[in-house]
Amino acid sequence: MTLFSFLGAIEIGLIFALVALGVFISFRLLRFPDLTVDGSFPLGGAVCAVMITSGYSPIVATIGAALAGAIAGLITGWLNVKLKIMDLLASILMMIALYSVNLRIMGGPNVPLINDPTLFNQLQPSGMEDYVFRPLLLIVIVILAKLAMDWFFLTERGLAIRATGTNARMARAQGVNTGGMILLGMAVSNALVGLAGALFAQTQGGADSSMGIGTIVIGLAAVIVGESILPSRKLILATLAVVIGAIVYRFFIALALNSDFIGLKAQDLNLVTALLVTVALVIPQLKRKLSKKP
Q1: Three-state DSSP string of the chain
Q2: Model-level pTM?
C-alpha cells in the first residue's frame, strides 16, 4: 500500500468515525435502531455543497449541514415519540423521504465542488500536500467532536438520554422526559452524521444522491469492530473505541482492495465489509470460550 492510499484510508476512516459516533448514540445509548443515517449523510453533503456553490463560507456551510442532519434526526424521533410509529419504521420512512429531499435540495443527482472553496483548501498551509493536510485537519475535528460528546453525555441532559436508553420506565419514574430525550439524542446523533456528510462531500469534490448507500452498515461495522478491539463500559473509552474501529475498518478495507495477490476489486467492498463484521462478532465469543477453559 502506498503512502497516498494509506493516508486516503485514514482520511475516510476519520470521516466515518463521526458517523460511527452518531450510530453509537442511537444504537448503543438510546437503543434506537436508526436507519435515518443513510439519508442524513447525503443530506449533510447536499446542504453543504449547495451552500458553498451559492457563495456561503465553507465553515458556515459545514455548520448548516450539521443542523440539517439534526433536523432529520429530530423528525425521526418525532415520528416515533409523537405519532407512536415504531422506531425502526420511523427511521425507514425518514430515510426514504430524505432521498427525494436531497434531490430537491441539489436540483439534480449531484453537485460538484471542483473549483469551489472548501474547508480544507481554505485552511491548507502553503507547502503542504492536500492528501497530508486533510487527515491532519480531520483528526482535530474528530477529537473535538469526541471530547464534546464525552462532555455532553456526562451532563444532566446527557445522563438523562443514557438513562432513557437503558431503562425508559425507570427514567420516567425519576421524572425524566423520555420523549424529549429521544428527540434530543436523535438530533445529536444525526448532526454528527450530517457533519460527516459535509466533510465527505468536500474531500470527494462534490455531493451525490447515492453517497449515503450503506452508511449505516459502515457505522455499525465501526462500532462493532471498535468494541471488539477495546471493550469497555466507560463512555470515554467506548467513544475512543468507536473512533479506532472506524479507522481500522477503513484501513483493512483499503488493504484488502489494494492487495493484488488477494484479487479483490471495488465491487467486492460489501463482501469485505460482511467478512470484517463477522470476524468482529466472532472474536468476543472466542475470547469467552477460551477464558472458560481451565
Answers
A1: CCHHHHHHHHHHHHHHHHHHHHHHHHHHHCCCCCCCHHHHHHHHHHHHHHHHHCCCCHHHHHHHHHHHHHHHHHHHHHHHHCCCCCHHHHHHHHHHHHHHHHHHHHCCCEEECCCCCCHHHHHCCCCCCHHHHHHHHHHHHHHHHHHHHHHHCCCHHHHHHHHHHHCHHHHHHCCCCHHHHHHHHHHHHHHHHHHHHHHHHHHHCEEECCCCCCHHHHHHHHHHHHHHHCCCCCHHHHHHHHHHHHHHHHHHHHHHHCCCCCCCCHHHHHHHHHHHHHHHHHHHHHHHHHHHCC
A2: 0.93
